[in-house]
Amino acid sequence: MDDGLRFTCQRGCTNCCERQGFVYLTEQDLRNAARYLGMSVAAFERRYVYRTAHLIRLRKPRASQCHFLGPNGCAIHPAKPTQCRLFPFWPELVEHRAAWNAEAQYCPGIGTGPLIQIGTAVETADEMRRAYSAMYFDRKL
Ligand code: SF4
Ligand code: SF4
After folding, report:
1. Quick check: pTM over 0.90?
2. What is the predicted pLDDT for the residue at 10?
3. Closest CA to 79 of 41, 31, 46, 115
4. How far is the centre of ligand 1, averaged over its atoms, from the C-alpha of 102 (Å)?
5. How far is the CA of 84 from the centre of ligand 2 (A)?
6. Among 90, 92, 100, 117, which one has the highest count of C-beta atoms within 10 angstroms of its own C-beta?
């Protein structure tokens, strides 16, 4: 992509939280969310987290995609995991115009708002890559 992207998150929308998929966390995400909820990291992890050798993700409740999605949106919004905070500036979307455009059918914020320079979008996507290096670089999964 050689030009910019338009995006503004839409008030009241929770589409991305309702999509089928997993929410992965960094170790810092884990500490932030636990602190925000006033829980110890160990207690937060026991209750909400599934951990393997190479990744950490939120457990999913039976009836929804995320324990923290409530009627008023994300219950841990100020401390939400990196992938939630950076969406839709994920490498697989920012670096492929067709994928970015296709994502607009789920995310009504795509294509709206001021133009975001592609360099800024790529920097954000790089933050995503660094945060989840096991998925993007190490290919240990
Ligand atoms: S789907 Fe898009 S507009 Fe809706 S909450 Fe997620 S990022 Fe915002
Ligand atoms: S942690 Fe919050 S922002 Fe992320 S999927 Fe769950 S409710 Fe949505």
Report:
1. yes
2. 97
3. 31
4. 14
5. 6
6. 100
Identify the band that residue 4 occupies on the pLDDT scale cut at 50, 70 and 90.
confident
Q: Which residue has the higher pLDDT, 116 or 137?
A: 116
**What does the block give as tokens for 64?**
């929804």
Identify the residue whose C-alpha is closest to ligand 2 atom 5: 17
Q: Name all residues whose Cβ lies below 6 A of ligand 2.
A: 17, 23, 66, 68-69, 74, 76, 80-81, 84
CA angle 66, 6, 106 (to 5 degrees): 35
Atom from ligand 2 closest to the CA of residue 85: 3
Taking Cα atoms as reference points, which of 89, 86, 99 lies closest to residue 122? 89
CA–centroid distance, 122 to ligand 1, in Å, is: 19
Distance of CA 3 to CAs 9, 52, 54, Å?
20, 39, 35
**17: phi then psi, degrees, rounded to nearest 5:** -75, -20
